[in-house]
């Protein structure tokens, strides 16, 4: 079954085209990345299997334009891998927020779309982008079934005391206000893959997964089940991110609104789209740009990178306390997989756990690697995530069951 997997992030679209034979036997036909969406200059990287890589720099104003670039590239006479869109048998999408409407993946219909739309309030940077991606595919491939896989599903094992906020209980019953988390597909995949990689029994383990990218979250996993995660009611909660502020004193919100005469929507926009790396540095929402600026001595770029490291160190420490120990810590996603300096700085503050860091092994990017020494009390590893494979598996099963 040829499946196109679309993973719309807050400023990116990752995609893979897979020919799925079964869960573990498949051919990757092409993969790619549309990045820096909404910035002055975006980029498309298309990697067709057996053909030369395509790289283009061009402005990409929004996800709808980015989605069209992806579809056009797949049938490009030179760099494409399909004769026509008719070759695509199913499309799977990553959806950040499904609230408590969904406990698993689902076939797309208008009821599902309506519920994803309702959840836009909980994930204002992501769910609207997901909807654009689904609608774009519907226009080009109207008869192809689509499946949605939710980031929130894996986190539903959190205990009530971890996911509830200390607000009047009626806001939970009336408006579903609680912690949902995000990046669940990635955290689940990395925990399972990482445990196997370092020789742990997932069903008898304490693991912390650090998904660090333009959007970031850290998750505590005991015996394969989530007990806490850093993102909350929306993906705004937690650490500093590309354009999101992360945790702040809630009273800052009405204070700034009064001072600047802002509406709730304007304040939401500031916290989600104009804060984080971009707001604090005044340079960019992309960590690679900040690394370059920091290397040239920019103080605010250095501040942002130090804050990112500090936020992750604090989250790891709190989850070690909550789990009463930790067996392994895994780094993944754009920054986690590719920024060796970030990983080193975090792990240098974990000596109290008995971590012994392998500096030589850390000089790697984008490859599953053990980063701790043999005598380290906690195993540290870089584990590459593959949310797209998880989505493709779910898509295949649901579509096959549709046909039965």
In short:
Helix content is 37%, strand content 20%. By secondary structure, it is of the alpha/beta class. Helix 1 runs parallel beside helix 3, helix 10 packs across helix 11 and helix 11 (299-323) crosses helix 13 (340-347).
How would you characterize the overall build of this protein?
- The chain is built from 14 helices and 14 strands.
- It is of the alpha/beta class.
- 47% of the residues are buried.
Number of strands: 14
Q: What coarse outline follows from CA principal-axis ratios?
A: globular
Category by helix and strand content: alpha/beta
Secondary-structure element series: EEEEEHEEHHEHHHEEEHHHHHEHHEEH
Compute the CA-based radius of gyration.
Answer: 21 Å
The major β-sheet equals: 8 strands, mixed
Helical content stands at 25-40%
What is the mean pLDDT? 94
First and last CA, distance: 15 Å
Secondary structure topology:
Layout (H helix, E strand, L loop, with lengths): L1 E7 L4 E8 L5 E10 L6 E7 L5 E5 L4 H12 L15 E6 L10 E2 L2 H9 L8 H14 L5 E5 L9 H4 L6 H6 L8 H15 L7 E7 L3 E7 L2 E5 L22 H9 L3 H10 L2 H6 L5 H9 L3 H25 L4 E5 H6 L1 H8 L21 E2 L8 E4 L4 H17 L1
Parallel strand pairs: 1-6, 6-8, 9-12, 12-14
Antiparallel strand pairs: 1-2, 2-3, 3-4, 4-5, 7-8, 9-10, 10-11, 13-14
Helix pairs in contact: 1-3, 10-11, 11-13
